[in-house]
Design goal:
GO terms for molecular function: alanine-tRNA ligase activity; aminoacyl-tRNA deacylase activity; ATP binding; tRNA binding. Belongs to the class-II aminoacyl-tRNA synthetase family. The protein is 39% helix and 21% strand. It is α+β, with helices and mostly antiparallel strands. A hairpin with a 6-residue loop joins strand 8 and strand 9.
């Protein structure tokens, strides 16, 4: 069964069982506690806690999706037969609509009846006991359900917290015991019974509080399902990755070829979701993946002796200067382009080539310096990283016998020491201020940055109104907020819209914002009961649950005649002239039906 057939079968299966099909969210999550979207449930986290209303937003208490994900914890393991950085997760979710019986039945029916596969065994939670008392009881209910479906005692295994309890994504959130389905000895589907909430700062580290409404959260890796369905031994031989793998240089060992195939796919999707290489957060991970691929590219075309010592010290320059990243990215679009319209070959290649040009200037120097080092330990490795940008993985790999004692733990200690020194220097520079503001949406490290994000925050309000006025209700849909993130450098605003904005539309939006800034309109707020606030026509973020009494910030002389008004907690400038010159730096796709604007102020 091809990956296209699996996708179609999965979505039709759950749509016929009254699930609303929801598009994949961006790899850039709304949740500030995680760098990337790592699971299908992340975009639905507020619906488990009651912070958002599923019936209002989806018209159903149950949804299904195919979510693009990135996980960074396994980067060092990529290259073996199963670890990946980018993958897709098939998932069905329920927010009080159904629970264990239905979820297990769905899992059984899909694997057995739809996919035609055989379940080897399943696992259930064995419970959690402390000082002789059950803090969380064994999941006997799931055992009974599986037995009713024909599984015997030998096919129902138990596992503890590490195997059969799904913790929250990030540091807090919904969680609960799981049951896992194994096919051909491989875990293909994890069904989580969300019935607890773990706090970010619990009074006790074992503080798991029952959720008011129990929910279902499942995850089934598309790559693994394709692998067992297509009866191939590794995920790299299934039809999602094999066509990419065949384009990698055959002269490199298979582990390295797998790394190139995996990382190239992750790079393409990260760029498509607006991530750019940098030295922090998501951009740091993207740069790390890019530079790993670039280094292997360099290896493939130069026969570096550190990689192949049996070929001699000199090495030989290959005729080809590239092993075909254009072809690899084109193949990725061929496989995924019909499902993820945000993928843009020209943009992906342009960003990759730009990073390639920058990194190649230091790579050769760094590798020469590496050859000079007699013993590569954590200190010398960090020096190579800091001075030449050589990633740990490349130093470890190309260092060969000289780097045998180097390990990630010691390198990370050196990296942390460097960060602490940098932070201490910044605190001294800014008079001892730490992070003075972090609401998730707004981040500022000192009073000066706080002033900047305040200006940018108010500019975001003007931007949303300008977008609605310029684009208006049309066949392309009405603009509504889909997320935002503001730092001292820029604002990022996501909004629902089905197509790319034209250059003329972008200029009209920018000009309209600047026009309102020049008018020096007052910015004020009124505090109202939520029901009354809604009657004012103020905009609000549909994913957020608001208290009974809310603040409505408005731009203009009164809330009734305001040019812009939104539910918001602040902070804001007092007059629009304080914002400064507004400039849109980029407009791009985030996911199907969602666009993103990045803007700055001067």
């Amino acid at each position: 069964m091809t990956h296209q057939e699996i996708r179609e079968k999965f979505l039709k299966f759950f749509e016929s069982r009254r699930h609303k099909i929801v598009p994949s969210s961006s790899l850039m999550p709304d949740d500030p506690s995680v760098l990337f979207t790592t699971a299908g449930m992340q975009q639905f986290k507020p619906y488990y806690t009651g912070a958002a209303d599923a019936m209002h937003d989806f018209g159903s208490l149950s949804v299904a999706s195919i979510q693009k994900c990135v996980r960074t914890s396994d980067i060092d393991e990529v290259g073996d037969e199963r670890h990946l950085t980018f993958f897709e997760m098939l998932g069905n979710f329920s927010f009080g609509g159904y629970f264990k019986k239905e979820a297990i039945q769905y899992g059984y029916d899909f694997i057995i009846k739809e996919m035609g596969l055989k379940i080897d065994y399943v696992t259930v939670f064995e419970g959690w006991k402390s000082t002789g008392l059950w803090l969380i009881k064994p999941d006997e209910e799931s055992k009974k359900i599986w037995k009713s479906l024909g599984l015997n005692d030998e096919q129902i295994k138990t596992g503890g917290f590490d195997d059969n309890f799904w913790g929250p994504t990030g540091e807090d959130g919904p969680c609960g015991p799981t049951t896992e389905i194994y096919v051909n000895g491989i875990e293909v589907w994890n069904i989580v019974f969300n019935e607890y909430y773990k706090s970010k700062y619990p009074e006790d580290k074992n503080d798991y509080k029952p959720l008011q409404s129990k929910g279902i959260d499942t995850g089934m890796g598309l790559e693994r399902l394709a692998m067992v369905s297509q009866k191939v031994p590794t995920v790299f031989e299934a039809d999602l990755l094999k066509p990419i793998l065949t384009l990698t240089p055959s002269e490199l060992e298979m582990r390295v070829r797998r790394i190139i195939a995996d990382h190239s796919r992750a790079i393409a999707f990260m760029i498509a979701d607006g991530i750019r290489p940098s030295n922090k957060e998501q951009g740091y991970v993207l740069r790390r993946l890019m530079r790993r691929v670039i280094t292997y590219n360099f290896i493939a075309k130069t026969d570096i002796s550190l990689m192949h010592p049996e070929r001699g010290r000199e090495g030989s320059q290959r005729t080809s200067t590239s092993y075909g990243m254009h072809d690899i990215f084109a193949k990725i679009l061929e496989i995924y382009g019909s499902y993820y319209k945000e993928l843009n070959a020209d943009l992906i290649i342009s960003e990759f080539e730009h990073e390639n040009e920058k990194f190649m200037q230091t790579l050769k120097s760094g590798l020469k310096e590496l050859e000079k080092v007699e013993n590569v330990d954590a200190s010398s490795a960090f020096m190579l990283y800091e001075s030449f940008g050589l990633p740990y993985e490349i130093i470890k790999e190309l260092g060969g016998a000289k780097a045998v004692s180097l390990n990630r733990k010691d390198f990370d200690i050196k990296f942390k020491e460097h960060q602490e020194k940098s932070r201490a220097g910044a605190e001294k520079k800014f008079g001892g201020h730490g992070l003075v503001l972090d609401t998730g949406e707004l981040k500022a490290g000192n009073e000066e940055e706080l002033k900047k994000v305040t200006r940018l925050h108010t500019a975001t309000h003007l931007l949303q109104t300008a977008l609605r006025k310029v684009l208006g209700p049309s066949t392309d849909g009405e603009v509504t907020q889909a997320g935002s993130d503001i730092t001292a450098e820029r604002l990022r605003f996501d909004f629902s819209f089905s197509r790319k904005l034209t250059p003329e539309e972008i200029k009209k939006v920018e000009d309209l914002v600047n026009e309102k800034i020049k008018e020096d309109l007052p910015v004020s707020f009124v505090e109202l009961p939520k029901s009354e606030a809604e009657k004012t026509g103020a905009l609000y973020f549909f994913k957020q649950k608001y208290p009974d009494k809310v603040k409505v910030y408005f731009v203009g002389s009164s809330v009734e005649s305001a040019w812009s008004k939104e539910f918001c907690g602040g902070p804001h400038v007092s007059h629009t002239d304080e914002i400064g010159r507004f400039k849109i730096s980029k407009e791009e796709a985030v996911s199907a039906g969602v666009r993103r604007i990045r803007a700055t102020i001067e």
